[in-house]
Structures are given as C-alpha cells and as structure tokens.
Amino acid sequence: MSDLQTKASAVKSCVIELSKKTTKQKNDALLLIASELVNQLPFIVEENKKDIASGRENGFHESLIDRLALTEDRIHDMADALKQLIEINDPIGELIDSWERPNGLQIKQVRVPLGVVGMIYEARPNVTVDAASLCLKTGNAVLLRGSSSAIHSNTAIVKVIHDALKKSDLPLDSVHLVEDTSRETASQMFKMNDYLDVLIPRGGKKLIDTVVAQATVPVLETGAGNCHLFIDETAEARMAIDIAINAKTQRPSVCNSIETILVHKKWADKYLEELVLALKNSDVEIRADKKIYAKINGILAATELDWETEFLDKIVAIKIVESTEEAIEHINKYGSKHSESIISEDDSHVVEFMNTIDAAAVYHNSSTRFTDGFEFGFGAEIGISTQKLHARGPMGLPALTSTKYLLYGNGQIK
Amino acid sequence: MSDLQTKASAVKSCVIELSKKTTKQKNDALLLIASELVNQLPFIVEENKKDIASGRENGFHESLIDRLALTEDRIHDMADALKQLIEINDPIGELIDSWERPNGLQIKQVRVPLGVVGMIYEARPNVTVDAASLCLKTGNAVLLRGSSSAIHSNTAIVKVIHDALKKSDLPLDSVHLVEDTSRETASQMFKMNDYLDVLIPRGGKKLIDTVVAQATVPVLETGAGNCHLFIDETAEARMAIDIAINAKTQRPSVCNSIETILVHKKWADKYLEELVLALKNSDVEIRADKKIYAKINGILAATELDWETEFLDKIVAIKIVESTEEAIEHINKYGSKHSESIISEDDSHVVEFMNTIDAAAVYHNSSTRFTDGFEFGFGAEIGISTQKLHARGPMGLPALTSTKYLLYGNGQIK
C-alpha cells in the first residue's frame, strides 16, 4: 500500500472511537499538544531551518520564506491558540432540535463529527497545528497534506502531535501527514471518497481551483475575495475615507480587504480628491475609470482586468457610479461574493444594497475587514467559505460537523 | 450558443429578481401552475403518450413504463402537491441568529436562496413539477435536465409552467429545461460552476455516481440505502417480526427499506423460524448465513455480495450475530449510512447502537420506512441526503437555501 492509502486507512479506522470522546478528553489532548510544542520547540525550529534553507536555495521570495518560518514566538503563539481553542464550546453532541410525530415517534437531531477531514494546504506550517487541533476539538480525524516546501516542518509538528496523543485518550491515528507530496498523490487524495468526508483546501486561488476541478470528495471552498466599498451620495466624508483606508491598507494581502471603490458621482464631486490624497498618502496605487484619471494627475487608467482582479496589494481600482443600482450591478458582475460594504446615510439605498448584493457578508458603514471567525466572535476559524452549500462566510467549529437523526419508537410501522 | 448555455444564462439572469419575491408572489405562482396543469391536462397526457410509445418501442420494462406514465390521476396529484407546498412555511428571509460585537457591529444571519439549482433526473416526469416548485418556493431558479425517454412529457410540463409564470410575478426564465439530452451536454452541465450553485441528481445509483465523479459544481448527493434491522437478544418477538416485515415489504423498491436483518443468536434460538416463516409468507426470498441455512430448509446461502447489495426487491439477507458490537461492526462495514434500526429492550445496547452507528437516521423499536421528509413532518422533500455536508437525511425546504451575514456599523474599522 502507498503512504497515502496506509495513512488514509489508519485515519479512517479511528473515526468511531474519536467521535465518542468527551469534551474533556479532547481538551486534555489539545493541552498536551500545546505543552509538547513548547517542550520540543528546539527540534521544530531545527527542522524548520531545513525547509528555509531549501526555500532559499530554490530562490523563494522573502515573503514566502517569512510564511515558512517558525520562530520561537510563532511556536508559542501556536501553543497559545491551542489553549484558546480549549475554552471554546464543543459543538459535538448538541441537541439541535427534537419533536414528536403524531404516530408517537420521537425525533432528535444531534450534532456529530464529519468523520475524516482531508486538509490540503500550502507553505505555512502553522496550518498543520491549526487544522489538526480544530479537527480534534470537533471529534474529526484528519489527513494532512502540506506542500513539499514545508515537509520537514510539517513532519516535525506531526511527530510532536503524535508524542502528545500517545499520552492522551485520543487514538494516535487521529492525525496523519501524507509525506509523499507529489502531484499524483494529491490527485489520488482528491478522489478518496471511501476515506474522506470532506476536503478543505487552504492556500492560493490556484490550489483551490485545482481541488474544486479535480475532487470527487465534497469540498469546502474558501478563498478569493474581490471585495468592494461603495461610497454613496450621502456618505459621511470622514467615515467613508477612514473605512476606505482601513479596508484597503490595514492588511492588503488578505481576502477581506477591498480591491475596488465605487464612488457615487455627487459624493465624488465634493470629496474624491480628498479620498485620492488619503490613499496616496498611504502609498496606495490607484487605477481609475476615465471620469477620474482624466481629472486627477498621476492616476492610472483602469482596465477591464482591474475590475476583476484581487490585487492582494496596495493597489485599488476606483469607479464613479451614477446610482446604488449601478454599484450593485458592478459588484454582482465582478465581485467574488465574499464581503461588500456600503457607506450611506440613505436608508432606502442601504436596504436595497443589503438585500440585493449576493455575498457572504454585506456591511453598512463598516470596513470589510471584519469578515473573520474571530471578529465574528466564533473563537476559532476554519476559513472563510465563499460557496453557498454547508457553510457561508467565516466558519467556526460547527462547519466541521454534520448532524444525525435519532428516532425512538415503540413498534411504529408504516 | 448551445441550448444549454442559452438556458443556463437565462436562468442565472433572474436569480436576484427571484430572490426578492415575497412569499405571496411565490405562492400565487405555484397556484397558477397547479391550475394550468389541470387546464392543460389533455395536452400533457397526449405528449406523455409519445414517450410511452417510444418507451414500448425501445422495449422498456413495464415498471419503467409505469414510472413514465402521467395519468389524469397523477396530474391531479401533482396539482394537489403544489397546493400543499403553498401551505408550507417559506424559509427565505428567516432571521437565523443575531448578535452584537464589543465594537458595536450588529451581525444578523439571514436565510437566502442558493441561486441556481441544476436538477438531473431520470424517467419520472413528475420530478419536473416537483423540482421546479420546490425551487420556486425557496426563491431559486432551476435548470432541469431530465432523461431523453421523458422528453415530450418534460417539454410539455415546462411549457405549462411557463404559461403559468407568464401570468405570475415571477420571471419566466426562473425555470428552464435542457432539451438536448445527450451525454456530452450533461457532462458540460456538471462543470458549469459559473452558472450553477448546486447540482441535485435524482435517480439510480449509476446516475448519482456519474454526477459525483464528474461534477465540479457542488453536489447534493441523495441515494442508496443499504439499511439494516438489528434484532437484539431482548427484542419483543411480535414487534421485531412486524417491523421486519414492514421495513422489508411495505415498499421494497425504495431506499429506506431494509436489505439485511441481523439477529442476536439468543433471540434466533427462540424466534428465528417464526421470523423466517413470516418473511416467506410475505413472498420474501431469504439469503442467510451458514448458521441459518444449514438449519432451515429452503433458504439460500448468503454471499459477501449479498451483504453489500441494495436489493430494492423482496429479497433479504439474514445474519446471526453474537452481540450488539458485532451488529454495529457489520453495519458500519456494509451500510450506506442511510437508516438503521435496533429492536431491543436493553437500554445499554440501545444507547451503544444509537451513538455508534454512523448513519443519517438511527432508529430504536421502529421501522426504517420513516426516513422521509413527509414522515419527519417537513411537508416537502427534496430527497434524502446520504452525504454529511450541508444536509443529512430527509431534506426539507431549508436544504435549498444558503445564508448571508448582514453587518450594521457606524464607522467601524479594524
């Protein structure tokens, strides 16, 4: 058997045992993992250095090296995150609903683990701990498949997790890492419907698109955010500009940052130059439609491609619109249904925008940067779903669960 | 543009308009469809005759001809089902949850339509009305793709639906039928991620497996039921036998009927012959393990394949087990995670069975035949999900919905 098959079988074999562990047993295991991460910190850092060295050899960009790096601080952060996860409510076993049918059948709907989660991710080795711990907390077994560039770090972390699990009540096989990082193995994993209940890809658009295109296992799609800010005619100038700067510059590389600002022409007549100046002062490159770049010096013309692009950088596209309808039309055409915001003091425009925009999160008078499991108060985040099935928007622990009906009778037949 | 692309574009174009229709507007449209079905009954029956004639020409089995046939009674039943659907609560717009964050951001989670549903189904033309009406009730547009054997009936029904929609407030393009029933067109439809939010296959295992294997659009899998009845040592004999007969024979062709009966050896010592006699009296063919067929005359030996097979017929496999654990092990090995039942008066065995069996519906002292949206009291049924994401078990209207977060602020930045 291949490494993949051996590990998939091992992970699957402990699903039932794991599903019956108590919250205390699961939390105790998480605490043991946190301790073991700190105990074995020098080992993890040493192994991580091997990945960094080969990254440098392969000419990785510094930003990629940074994502790969596991410093002492970062490992302590990982251990702290585990302790926070312990505090969060365990959704497993929750009674979602219960009722009685006229024939006397008692029906209960309860929350259960999904079973086996397949996690496919890129360079960041902290995802290894993150994914494993979220799965264990929700009673799921997990098959991890990280990238080859982080293989030493990931192998080390899983070794540490196994050392912790040996001391815990959870089965050792609850967590495994596929060490064969070839593309062929990944493609096989995408089609392991007999072993995996769900695949969660975490990484860039290309990875996610590949998984969606190839997988026969159901996928929880997280991903791209081509988000917009619409500044309506009646928007308060200071609020609109502050939110624009925050939503664009506070962390441009993440999915809930904005990529395009749509400005109502009447607001633009009064405040556009002020907005542009503020963006420039924050080192944001502006690509604007004709009405703007013709009027203001030093601004590039936006192309069709700019409306479609998630820049993930200090670049913003700006467009003048004539109405809320035009803003909505633009967003529903180019947006990725992630996070969209309207700044307005006009109730009817706000209602129209909130109801008509098709996105996971629609904001009024707020930055889009709050689309995040922690900011929503979930205490944990699996990712931000951009699909409509199962979970939409920031996903907390319940996104890693399914349900089951229990029916109690006394001889009912149909 | 191909027929498929033209219709997919048309259906997608009305998603936003449709999502904003009120419950009354949607119910009025359903009532118009019900009336129009009855008004145009002779036309539908005429068109249906063409499908029946070519079915006969192609040597269809009588049971298939029966599935294809639209009699006057069946068309009246379709109209009545529409009227019942009107009475069911509209889930769209439901406030699922709302809370305030420490920064003052108000978060509301509301229920919204999925968008466009792609429905792939086999011979039964009544699915055309059923699928269209469930989608319209939940504010979804729907692209229908039935089988070539029912093309005249399906085209006629969609014509009738369009005639009704013309008189309604809903967009005509909310419902379209792909008239090109080639395999190539179906394969294209499976990958229309830009147009379809979900694919729902309804039909045999082969159809569902094909959709799961080929689709890149998320699939709501419904399907196979290899269901079991476990008669424990302490089972009341009369109850166990009545339930066995009901779960096997009341409608053998459906997914929630049982295929295997597991009998505790101590119960078998006393009552097995009685059970076998009852099954034989109901014309059920028995395939049993060695311990049984060696003892009782006229029973076939079960093969490995019998434990795996969904007979969908008056055939049952019987196995003697030594314990609840052995029953659970057999079910978790061979079952399709659909519906499983234990007949027992021993509380600890019942708890063990209900908690350990991994299935959509787990029963105590009841027939499995109740796994059904109507029997659960949902008032409608999209199908019975055998997957763990999005929906599990009988799916009512909420399975055709997604959610959206609405966030209200007063200038919040991160």
Automatic annotation (TrEMBL), chains A, B:
Its main location: cytoplasm. It is found in: Cytoplasm. Residues 74-285 form the Aldehyde dehydrogenase domain. Keywords: Amino-acid biosynthesis, Cytoplasm, NADP, Oxidoreductase, Proline biosynthesis. Its EC number is 1.2.1.41. GO terms for molecular function: glutamate-5-semialdehyde dehydrogenase activity. It is an enzyme of class 1 (oxidoreductase). The keyword NADP applies. This is Gamma-glutamyl phosphate reductase. Pathway: Amino-acid biosynthesis; L-proline biosynthesis; L-glutamate 5-semialdehyde from L-glutamate: step 2/2. PANTHER family: DELTA-1-PYRROLINE-5-CARBOXYLATE SYNTHASE, GLUTAMATE SEMIALDEHYDE DEHYDROGENASE. Belongs to the gamma-glutamyl phosphate reductase family. Coiled coil: none annotated. It comes from Aquibacillus rhizosphaerae. Catalyzes the NADPH-dependent reduction of L-glutamate 5-phosphate into L-glutamate 5-semialdehyde and phosphate. The product spontaneously undergoes cyclization to form 1-pyrroline-5-carboxylate. It catalyses: L-glutamate 5-semialdehyde + phosphate + NADP(+) = L-glutamyl 5-phosphate + NADPH + H(+). Pfam families: Aldedh (PF00171). It comes from the Bacteria.
